[in-house]
Write a structure and sequence with these properties.
With about 250 residues, the chain is an alpha/beta fold. The chain has ten helices and eight strands.
C-alpha cells in the first residue's frame, strides 16, 4: 500500500480538488477499487468532487469516536475511487476527534492497516492547510508528501515553514519523501510565469515537472460533482492529471 499525503501551508490553493482529481486519474489507470481517498479535513468537502451531493454525516470522525473501523463508512464513487469522508459533525465531536489523534499518533496508520487494502493499493489523504494533528498523522503514515502550491507570492512565502515541518518529520521517518506541485498554472499571466520560474529555482528537482494548468473545466466539473477527467477528458487539466498520476504511480511503486 502506498500512501500520499496531500498538504498545503495555506488554503485556497486547490488542495482538495487536486486530491480528488488525482485519485480519479490514478483509478482510471489502476482499475476500480485500487485507489482510496481519505478526507482528514474538517471541511468535509472531498466527497463532493467524487459524485456525492449531500454532505456526508457519517465518516471517519464519528467512527473514530465510537472506536469503529473506518472501512464501514467507505463508499465507492461512480469514478472507481473508494472514498472515506470526514463526516458532518459538531464542534464538540471535531474537538474530541482531534484530542484522540493527538493522544494516539499512529491512529490513522492503524485504521488503514485494518482497511483491507492490498500492497498494490494507493491511498491519498486530503489534509487541512497549516499545522495540525491531522498533518502530524499524515506525516506519520505517508510514503510521499505532495505539497500543493500556487505560483503566487503567498505560496512562495510559505515554503520555509513547510520545509521546516517536512525536515522535522523526516528526522522521525528518514524514508519520507516530498515533492511540490504547481496548481492553476497560467503562463499567460507574467507574474504567475515569473513566480513559477522562481519556485523552480528555489525547489529544484523537488518541484514536479508536471503542473496543473488553470482550466475552467475543473470548476465546471465540480458543479456537476465529477472529476474533470470524466467531465471533459480532452481538456488541458485532464491531460495534466493523467500525466501526474502516471508520474506519481511510478515513483511510489513498491
Amino acid at each position: 500500500m502506498s500512501v500520499i499525503a496531500v498538504v498545503s501551508m495555506k488554503g485556497g490553493v486547490g488542495k482538495t480538488s487536486v486530491t480528488a482529481n488525482l485519485a480519479a486519474a490514478m483509478a482510471a489507470r489502476l482499475g476500480e477499487g485500487q485507489v482510496a481517498a481519505l478526507d482528514l479535513d474538517p471541511q468535509n468537502a472531498l466527497h463532493l468532487h467524487l459524485g456525492f451531493e449531500a454532505l456526508q454525516r457519517e465518516g471517519v470522525c464519528r467512527q473514530s469516536l465510537q472506536h469503529r473501523y473506518w472501512r464501514d463508512v467507505a463508499f465507492t464513487s461512480p469514478f472507481g475511487v473508494s472514498c472515506l469522508p470526514y463526516g458532518s459533525v459538531s464542534e464538540g465531536e471535531r474537538g474530541a476527534f482531534e484530542n484522540l489523534l493527538a493522544s494516539e499518533p499512529d491512529w490513522v496508520q492503524r485504521q488503514l492497516a485494518h482497511a483491507g487494502l492490498g500492497d498494490d493499493h494507493v491511498v491519498l489523504i486530503d489534509l487541512p492547510p497549516g499545522p495540525s494533528v491531522y498533518l502530524d498523522q499524515g506525516f506519520a503514515c505517508a510514503d510521499l508528501v505532495l505539497v500543493v502550491l500556487l505560483a503566487d507570492a503567498g505560496s512562495y512565502s510559505t515554503i520555509i515553514a513547510m520545509e521546516s515541518w517536512i525536515n522535522e518529520a523526516t528526522l522521525q521517518r528518514p524514508g519520507l519523501e516530498s515533492v511540490y506541485l504547481l496548481n492553476q498554472v497560467d503562463e499567460a499571466v507574467p507574474l504567475s510565469r515569473d513566480l513559477g520560474a522562481v519556485l523552480r529555482r528555489r525547489l529544484g528537482a523537488r518541484l514536479l515537472p508536471i503542473g496543473i494548468h488553470r482550466d475552467e473545466a475543473v470548476s465546471e466539473a465540480l458543479a456537476f460533482l465529477q472529476p474533470v477527467l470524466f467531465y471533459d477528458p480532452r481538456c488541458q487539466a485532464s491531460d495534466d492529471f493523467q500525466r501526474l498520476a502516471a508520474c506519481l504511480l511510478e515513483s511510489t511503486a513498491p
